[in-house]
Each structure stands twice: as C-alpha cells, then as structure tokens.
Amino acid sequence: MLLCLFIGIGVATAQTMKITGNVISSEDQQPVIGAAVVVKGTTIGTVTDFEGNFSLDVPRDAKMIFISYVGLKTKEVPVASVINVVLDSDSKALDEVVVTAMGLTREKKALGYALQEVKSDELTKAGQQSLATSLSGKIAGVQITSQGGQVGASQNIVVRGNSSFGNNQPLIVVDGVPIANDNAKGATVNLGSGLNDINPEDIESISVLKGGSAALYGMRAGNGVILVTTKSGKKDKGVSISYEGDITIDRVYNLPRLQNKYGQGYYASEYDWKEAQAGGYSGDYQAFALENGYNYVDGMGSGINDNADESWGPRLDIGLNLPQYNSPVIDGVRQATPWVSSPDNIKNFFQTGYSMNHTVALSASTDKTSTRASLSFRDQGGTTPNTDQKRYAMAVNTKMTFNKYIDFDLSANYIRTKSANLPGTGYNSTNALQSIMQWFGRQVDLKDLKNNWDQVDEYGKYTHYNWIQSFHANPYWTLNKNTNSYDRNRFYGKTSLYIITILISSLVFYGISTIRMDISVASTVR
Hints:
The protein is mainly β and 526 residues long. It has helices at 2-15, 91-94, 120-124, 131-135, 270-278, 285-293, 345-349, 432-437, 446-452, 475-481, and strands at residues 16-25, 36-39, 45-47, 53-59, 64-69, 72-78, 82-87, 97-99, 105-107, 116-119, 142-146, 155-159, 171-174, 177-179, 184-185, 190-192, 203-209, 225-230, 238-250, 321-323, 329-330, 333-334, 336-338, 353-365, 369-381, 388-401, 406-419, 483-500, 505-522.
C-alpha cells in the first residue's frame, strides 16, 4: 500500500513542471506588479510579486502561456523553465481603463456594474461656457437644467431621477477631492454652480457613479457621484506646449409672444368706449382715450393712468394721439404724439453675447515624473446689456515615482471668477427683465430709453428718464447703475503618497477645497 502511494506521487509529479520568470515594462524597465500569468486553454495561473517575479506549476503538455496587465499589451510566449518577458504599452487598452470610486482605475469590462464615462474631446469640441453645460446630453440618465441663459447662471444636475423632495444634486469629486456644486445665490443674483469653476480644457475624463458603485463616498453620495479626473501630462515623454481656444456667439433664440393691440393703462379700450356711449357719452374715441385712458404728466399718477405698468389701455395703431413720457413739452404742456405700438421693443433690448476661452498648457514627462501646468482665461459678455463674467484659472498636476515602492502626486487648482455686473434675478428692482417683460407699456420705445437713460438736467442731476416713475426704473439705468459686482476666489487640490511594502500597500491622502466670495450691490437712491 505504501508502495502504491509513492508511485501515485511520482506520476502526479511527472505530469507537471515548474516554470519561473520575471515581467518588466518596456517604458521604464521596472517590474510589473500583479501581472496575470495564465496557461493557455486552462484556468491555471498566478500573478507577479513586488519584484515582477512569478512561479507556476504547469502541465507538461502545456505549450503556451499568456501574460497580461492593464494598459500593457498581452504577450503569448512558449512554455520554458525560465521565462523573462517585456510588456509594451498599449494605448488601445488604456482607452478601456476607467476611473472608479476613490480614484482607482479599473478595466471597464471587469466592472460588475454600469459606469458611464465622457472623454475630454467630447467636453470641449462644442465650446460650451461651463463644464456642466458641456455634459448635457452626453450621459444617459443625467439631467442637466440651466437656471437661465444669462451670464454665470447655475445648473441643476440630477442623476437618474429625483430621490427626495430636497436637494438632489450629486457629489462632485475632482481628483479625489469633494467640492460643492450648490447653486449659490446672493440676495438677488445667481452666482453659479461649483462646476462652473472647472475649466473643461483641463479635464481628462468624467465618470458617473450611482447606487452601490458610489457607496465608498458614504451618505454624501446618496444622489450619485460625478468623478472628474484632470489631465496630468502623462501621455508623451519630453516637453510640449499646447494652446486651445474657442469663441462662441450668443443670441436670444426665443421670446414670449406679446400683444400689440393695447397700450399702457388699465382702461379705455374700444369696448369700454362703446359701453360709455351706451351710457350717454357723446365724444369720439380720441377724446375718450385722452380723458379716460392715458395722459402722461409725471409718471406717478398725476396724469390719467400714467403710473399704470400694464398694457390694457387705449387701442394702438389706429391714429390716436396722446401725451406720453417722451412727448415734447411746450409752455409747460406735454403735447400729444402718435399712440403706436413697438412690437420689437423687447427684441431690441437684447444684444449679441459672446464667450471666449483660451488655455495654454505646458506638459513635461520623463521615465519617473510627469507634470502638466496650465493657464486659462474665459471672457463672457451676456445678451443682457452691461453684464459680464471673467474667469482666470491656474492648474498644476504632477506625479513622481521615486522608486518601485514610493509614488507621490500633487494636484492644485486656483480659480478667480469676477464680474462687474451679474444680471439680477427674481421679482425685484435689480432684475431689468422682470420690469420690461412682466410689466411694460407696449408703446414704449426701448431704443429711446437706451439713448437717454443717463440724461441730466441743467444742474447736472439725473432726470431718471423713464416711461414710468412709480414702480420701475429705466432698465438701462438699472443695468448701469444698480450693478451686482462679484469676486470669487476658489482653491482646491490634493496630494498623496503611495507606499508599497512587502506585506501591504498604503495611501496617505490629503485634499482641500476652499471658497472666498465678495459680493457688492451698487444701488443708487433716487
């Protein structure tokens, strides 16, 4: 019986053979840690150790083995007692590597969950004004809604539907650092979203996580995670300088349909006149409109409905002549002038906006270090007159490999966003659009208001030239005098030290994101 046992062991030993070897990378001649070594046609395999070495018992009839690693070309080599392999870089394989939670890179096909990714060229080719608008329509299940088309407007982002009645914004993580994407607002101004501070030209890729794939970020990731990975200059060896720029033109695409049959006032339509005639009124419609519909004196109610900010007054474009805010005054009496509509008055208010983006980047790479530094400038002029926003950004991303055990990386970003005047929002006097699109006279010529908003009298005081004096200021006065200046400084970055020991690997990580904002509302007392 003992003899049979020894014979069985001998047969098993004769059926296998031990092979050993070493795997290094052709790029830096460093050991490849964790490379897969698998016998072709079987599930027999192992992985390389910290020195790139491996040892494996293989069947004696085995002919070939596969050696593979993420980002390197797989090699098929004949079985031999000692095998030394050099793996080359594979750019195609790198295209399938995605960034997952905590900044880890994985092969996309190896993930057990769905992950969507957008590359840098998809973000920049349309010349969008912000990173959030660049993402719009590019990721299934991600809804991005702009809070208006004005300069600096924020965006609301929802990943696969609302999960609560409160805030449903996902967590934004840039190079491992969580940043706020709150829709910041001043008293009357939309100050934009956190993603607006990130230059799309500095982005390498964006990944979206939802559900279990975002669990590593805890409760803050309950609405999903948007992972932003910035460019690091790691692709090409040597030194290179690049420039990217774009210019876009903005025009108002759609305006509300407004009636042009009735002018400023509350009363004195033709229907009202006919009712008055039925009650005994004998005057014609011209007299009725002058006596009951509209007659401007001071815009504060001293005339007939001259403090009305609605347009249900006398009929327009039928030959009426009524005293108006811009009618000539002769011997102290305001003369009657044609009562005609201005159908394009709202359209004439808006101007052609623009947005310019310029980025200059310096990249340097060696066998052990890679660095990318960039300077960018964005200048945006709004379709609303005298509104603007400028963004200055600096970014540095570097990675150093001291040896096969220690890696160090640093990412730092500084952004300054400033504006001489952000457009007002909401139902208040700083919002010029509210005063001309919700309450306005359809006979008012906005070009006239534009040409005379800064009119002064013989004493050098502003006359506050306007179509009304009770509720609203001249919209051009609002945009030029009641300004909302804004200056925001933001810094975010991280540094990490990755140490590999014989038994464990450890990561020391530190990240920071800070914001300082200065908001100034310049209002003039009338």
